[in-house]
Amino acid sequence: MENKNYPANRLDLSFYREELPRGNRVALAQAITLAESTRSEDVASANQLIEQLLPHTGNSVRIGITGVPGVGKSTFIEALGKYLTSLNYKIAVLAIDPSSTKTKGSILGDKTRMEELARDKHAFIRPTATGNALGGVTDKTREAILLCEAAGYNVILIETVGVGQSETAVRNLSDFFLLLMLAGAGDELQGIKKGIMEMADAVVITKADGDNLKRANQAKADIQHALHIFSDSDSGWKPKVITSSASEKKGIQETWNLVQEYVRFAREKNFFDELRIRQNLIWFQERMQQLIKQQITESPELNEQIKILEKKIIDRKILPARAAQEIISNYFKI
Amino acid sequence: MENKNYPANRLDLSFYREELPRGNRVALAQAITLAESTRSEDVASANQLIEQLLPHTGNSVRIGITGVPGVGKSTFIEALGKYLTSLNYKIAVLAIDPSSTKTKGSILGDKTRMEELARDKHAFIRPTATGNALGGVTDKTREAILLCEAAGYNVILIETVGVGQSETAVRNLSDFFLLLMLAGAGDELQGIKKGIMEMADAVVITKADGDNLKRANQAKADIQHALHIFSDSDSGWKPKVITSSASEKKGIQETWNLVQEYVRFAREKNFFDELRIRQNLIWFQERMQQLIKQQITESPELNEQIKILEKKIIDRKILPARAAQEIISNYFKI
Predict the structure, then answer these.
(1) Judgement on whether residues A192 and A258 belong to the same structural domain of the protein
(2) Exposure winner among A131, B53, B54, B63, fewest CB in 10 A?
């Protein structure tokens, strides 16, 4: 990774520590890059920095947004983002695309996708790296959220496409989880999204305009009905359905009002902070797992041993369970 | 765990090593209990035993069977089991019920569920313990399969209810994966099973008799059509759909013929052994993860440290990522 934009000594954290709370966007972008680095010194520095910035973090609403390709996520996020900056909010968009490691396409396209928002000086758009298979799709998104908050962004939109485990991962770092759906996309689509729907605090039906309006209203009733089937969420919040048309700027204000209603509701029940604490404990557990995997990957000796045992397993000369026991007893004695 | 049925010295493995290949059912049941023990000496003994028995293992077809409660799994398995023993196969039924740790009910009910089969001396029915949260739902099922094979059972039916990750886990230890479905259970049910359907080598539509017959045939056509949507499986096998009526003994022979057709197909392509090797490598990886978790759980000092760090995380005094780093650097140095 090139670091020509870093301060003379990239590990001199005082630059970031001073510039981030001033809202310096270049410093923010560089700090995220530091956190996303695969070099362990960089990661240690980033962790130290974020810990020092902790008093400046937390003052945002973190909104997870998901939906299948074609549902109109960019258009919706751009409309919501523009609306929020018009209310003087500072918004950050963190886009997670698990497929991006293969195609690279959508990451490069991120800023052009939301052209108007990208020019807005109160908006910060950043695709987050998902290349590290060890860490999962949201590897360093939590760090990015905290850094954005330290830089004064008070609404964080975390966007993901509906692939694999990414929705659950994003749910685990959002205060509010929003599912975008198309009206009349058929039972099949809705079926695929069923596990996801259970995690949603709200469903927004997009493209509810023109010929689509009637179908969208029908879908709203159907989905509202379906949501009743699920047992209550931990907070007691009842998920709501909204119809939206980004082209007609419809449902945008309503979505934001709903988010605010949720935040009031969750704060009253002490659930807002409780959920963040739970998410931090999950973060701790996940990162431990990840660091263990990383140690295995980075140890040539251990890798060599694993290869030898795998060969024996293939040749049916050792029981896989005993091979595992051998590795752990020899290398992971606490 | 009481061990009054063990030989005088429970770690004297020669008893099992001699008795299992003779088909001694009591020795088999005890050996599985030994493998399922949570005492590490027992596990080490069981692993040693199974490794010594490896030459006697592998000569079976391992059939994973899943389906929602009410689909008629027990009835189907009993009918299939009786049919197979009538052909002089020795069959073992390993029932995995992830909910059993809570209710205990279905495990106790296993033998009464399949009363006729339970009396058949060529059938061995065993619920497998799923109590160990560390190991997941199929914690020791692999060991049980190998022990059954060593005792001469040549068709192993591994049954699971459709809860959580259990299907994927069972898929990872089966040669052939069978999904039972009800006709006309509505799109909702079919939607829930979509991820599962992609893993199936065959779908059996149960209760295809009487008034239900027409609907079952329609469902067969629909599901066959749906299966075409999925991309080819690794083996190139095209999943088939069968209608079945356990009461009319319909579809049982057909199911077995299909399993045999699959085995021929997979052997011809060298896929049969290749899949088992892959599954053994997964077993190795999973068991390593599990042993690491176990080490953490069993170390009082480490647990104490984790508790202290969790308290700091809750009080926002440490970054979760840094807390994880601290644990791993101090306790998991390779």
Answers:
(1) yes
(2) A131
